[in-house]
User: Which sequence fits this backbone?
């Protein structure tokens, strides 16, 4: 009898959660889940933003490295490594039909001789050189501006053989960098270190070409806002055999 009364009393003292307690627990759990979810979303946005920035920097760096490699081969092979008497340019210079000015360079007459820098502006350069061991190529690097006249622009690189160029051929543009935010990509410096000026300096005096790439990603940085786009700026310089 006593055992039965004890069990009855023990059962009577046990009870479940009240509705208020359950609602409070659910509210706390909802807040915790919300905080965790928001944290995860922020981490994902930051990760995507970092991947976007790294990709932008890598793409810009690869394109700049390509240009620098090409520029270092500009002017190679030059006339000095050939027997001058075997060159068409030598005969022409002896005959006085070409000189060392920017408009009549003797080296343009020989398919195996690279003239170095052919033309220059802040948004486009053209030069000759054996850039890959297959012979002298004509290399073009230029900014392509949209019809609106404003950037983002495209920086493209194209090549053709000098033989094709001498026959009136045009380059094939197969490498490009999108998202360029400035049309002023190139700077040139003379042998004495002064900045090259088109109106007063001779193109043959250019010894260094500087590059500045200011590039914007096409994807917004959503970790900040939907209207903020990551950018990267890279500056370098190459010495050329001009």
Assistant:
């Amino acid at each position: 009898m006593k055992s039965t009364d004890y069990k009855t009393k023990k059962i009577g003292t046990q009870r479940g959660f009240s509705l208020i307690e359950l609602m409070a627990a659910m509210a706390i759990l909802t807040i915790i889940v919300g905080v965790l979810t928001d944290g995860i979303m922020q981490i994902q946005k930051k990760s995507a933003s970092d991947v976007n920035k790294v990709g932008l920097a890598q793409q810009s760096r690869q394109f700049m490295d390509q240009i620098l490699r090409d520029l270092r081969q500009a002017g190679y092979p030059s006339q000095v490594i050939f027997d001058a008497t075997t060159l068409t340019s030598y005969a022409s210079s002896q005959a006085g039909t070409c000189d060392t000015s920017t408009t009549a360079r003797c080296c343009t007459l020989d398919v195996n001789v690279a003239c170095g820098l052919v033309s220059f502006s802040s948004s486009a350069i053209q030069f000759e050189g054996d850039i890959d061991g297959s012979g002298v190529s004509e290399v073009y690097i230029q900014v392509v501006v949209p019809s609106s006249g404003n950037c983002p622009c495209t920086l493209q690189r194209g090549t053709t053989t000098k033989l094709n160029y001498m026959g009136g051929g045009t380059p094939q543009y197969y490498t490009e960098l999108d998202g360029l935010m400035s049309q002023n990509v190139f700077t040139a410096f003379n042998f004495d270190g002064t900045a090259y000026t088109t109106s007063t300096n001779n193109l043959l005096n250019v010894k260094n070409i500087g590059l500045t790439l200011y590039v914007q990603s096409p994807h917004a940085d959503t970790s900040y806002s939907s209207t903020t786009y990551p950018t990267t700026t890279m500056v370098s310089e190459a010495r050329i055999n001009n």
Remarks:
- Strands lie at 117-120, 124-129, 137-144, 153-161, 172-180, 186-190, 206-216, 231-239.
- Residues 53-78+114-239 form one domain.
- The two ends are 115 Å apart (CA to CA).
- The mean pLDDT is 86.
